[in-house]
Amino acid sequence: MGESLSKTPNEAIILPFKPVASSRIIETLSSNLSPLAERLTMPQDLTDTITKFINGHTTLTDVSGFTSDERSRVLTAINPQTNKLAERATQNFLSVIACKNISGDLGSWNFLADASKIVERNQEAAWAVEFNKLFQLNDHPGVERLCNILRQHNDNRKQEIATFVLTYLAVNRENRIIIGRFLAGRSVMLEKLHRDLYGVALNKAKLEATKAMIRLAEQTGLHRTHLDRSLAQIQQTDHAALDHLIYGETEYDNQCDGMYHPGSLRIRIHYGGSSKDRSIKQPDHVIKTARHELFHAASAQSIQQHSWRMGLTGDNNQGTEVNEAMAEFQAQYAGEFPDMVQLQNGKPAFICNYKTEVSTLYELQQKDPESFNTLFRANYGQVDNDSISQALSAYYDNLAEAYNWRTNS
Fold first, then answer.
1. Cβ neighbours for 239, distance < 8 A, ≥ 6 positions apart
2. How many domains does the chain have?
3. Are 360 and 372 in contact (CB under 8 A)?
4. Contact predicate 335/208, CB 8 Å
5. Which whole-number Å values give the CA distances from 221 to 47, 79, 170, 361, in the listed order?
6. How far, in Å, CA of 281 to CA of 198, rounded?
7. Which of 277, 302, 366, 382 is a plausible cystine mate for 48, CB 3.0–4.6 Å?
8. Torsions phi, psi of 115, nearest 5?
9. Is residue 123 part of a domain?
């Protein structure tokens, strides 16, 4: 998952996937950690994630539903197989905008408005030219002309007409193929935009994460095999598309600063603000967010066919607390703990995302380094079957105590 967005330095928004600020719930989790320990000890394929990513067999993060290999094939060849892939992407797209209509979202209108800009910037690309010709009005082709007409209406009417036009066009099989090819080109453009905005910051975050990973591996006894694989995954990790139709583009949409895409090596750095008033993040903020997501990507493993594990998480999101704590601890470590403060009682604390979870893990490292080291190694697939349960219990018992102390203080 991603970094939680904080309202203030000391007050984090509680999300469905985020650790729940309740000592009772944490105590319940700590009393039954055996399923999580069992999940962590399952045999894993340490090369599967990076191999599939390099070969283009992991899914992208836009509405098309393509893998990167499928997207490339759709854009470079026209044959029965790629036509079928293009049609499938269009069906995915139509399903999403149908759901957006039910929720009152302006997905269809926003799609056309963005499409007009993409077409304008890609006038030589066949996929853009074909798509633009679908919107033939009085012998003047162009999605921009349709958008200019729709801008004369209110939001509800714009959305209604946009949805009707897109759905009507998709009745024809040839049109579905053209729309699917446009979705492939759009996917590339969305990724490029993300990379152009935050590519330099991501590369700096990779350098910091790599240095931190090497130091921590030495301190914790992580085997070289697991270290090399994790470092390779950090280096391979790339930007994902920011698509308003499926995952949202902003921290408001997602209630987090960034997100790792499970089963892949792609991360998203969300825009600031909301979709109506979005802003570009400052480099320092992007680097901090990227470090957190990079450590998630570094911990990605395949444990069964079509089954992925991210770090210390188990089934039904069990282990989210310790997993997010580990990712943020490493992000803080890589930045030399910029968000650590000293409380009046002398205890260290963090004013970052997942502050209680990270503070608990930091204290575990100081007072029970053996348990911390066990969790760190397990995060990257080197699991000690005899000590993992004890290490998990040590963390969750302390976390329950920390939540109880925070509730009663």
1. 191, 194, 195, 198, 199, 202, 266, 267, 268, 269
2. 1
3. no
4. yes
5. 20, 52, 57, 18
6. 9
7. 302
8. -60, -35
9. yes
- Cβ-proximal residues to 205 (8 Å cutoff; 6+ apart), any chain: 286, 287, 288, 290, 291, 294
**Helix 155-169 / helix 173-220 crossing angle, nearest 10 deg:** 110
Neighbours of 307 (CB within 10 A): 14
- pLDDT tens, 241-280? 888 888 778 887 777 888 998 888 999 998 888 777 888 8
Torsion, CA 37, CA 43, CA 46, CA 51, rounded to 10: -120
Q: Whose CA is closest to 113, among 150, 167, 59?
A: 150
- The radius of gyration of the chain from alpha carbons, rounded to an integer in Å, stands at 23
**Which pLDDT belongs to residue 391?**
96
Cβ neighbours for 240, distance < 8 A, ≥ 6 positions apart: 60, 61, 191, 194, 261, 264, 266, 267, 268
Residue 76 domain-assigned? Answer: yes
* Confidence at 346, pLDDT banded by 50, 70, 90: confident
Give 274's strand partners: 277
Domain that holds residue 78: 68-185
User: Are residues 371 and 395 in contact, defined by beta-carbon separation less than 8 angstroms?
Assistant: yes
360-385: per-residue pLDDT in tens? 999 999 999 999 999 999 999 999 98
**Gap between the Cα atoms of 111 and 392, Å rounded:** 46
Is 314 inside a domain boundary?
no
| The two three-digit tokens of residue 291, written as one number | 């470090």
Answer for the pair 328, 292: CB distance below 8 angstroms, yes or no.
yes
Q: 408 pLDDT exceeds 80?
A: no
If you average pLDDT over residues 206-234, what whole number do you get? 97
Quick one: tokens of 290? 């990227």
User: Does some domain include residue 93?
Assistant: yes
